[in-house]
Amino acid sequence: MLGGTEVERADAARAFHRTSPLRLGPFVRVDCARDEALVVSSLRSWLLRSDSPMHECPLREAERGMLFLDQVDRLSSWAQRLLLEFVARRLDPTRGAEPDSWGGRLAAGTDEDLDFAAARGSFLPALHDCLDKVRISLDTLPQGGAA
Predict the structure, then answer these.
(1) Rounded to an integer, what distance in angstroms lies between the CA atom of residue 73 and that of residue 119?
(2) 83-120 pLDDT, tens per residue?
(3) How far apart are CA 39 and CA 56, in angstroms?
(4) C-alpha count within 13 angstroms, C-beta hemisphere, residue 59
(5) Domains in the chain, please, with CATH?
């Protein structure tokens, strides 16, 4: 989900979820700018196959539904690398993931021009490639970022 406001991106992600095969599952939205620590702990728990109880774990909460990571461009490079590893394992289970170990759908949103961010090095190009499968533009982004 590119452009628009946080509310517009969340509404678009919910609409996409309602038409998906996983529509009966939960819809979980995480604001990466505010909740990076939550994203990181959830990703680390999944990547390390940890069963340690967490009060909040968006990946577990979104199981068999959709996890919408809004403001994904605001993640630190460390968090981006963790997210890339998570996505890469989902796309290629031979990289260490157990089959069907996470059966959700991942969506990401931003008001940043991710093509430009990846080109300038502030967003991992490999992560951009993994996330850029279905692009929904809510408005036209100017070159270099949000209006």
Answers:
(1) 13
(2) 999 988 876 656 554 544 678 899 999 998 889 999 99
(3) 10
(4) 22
(5) 6-131 (3.40.50.300)
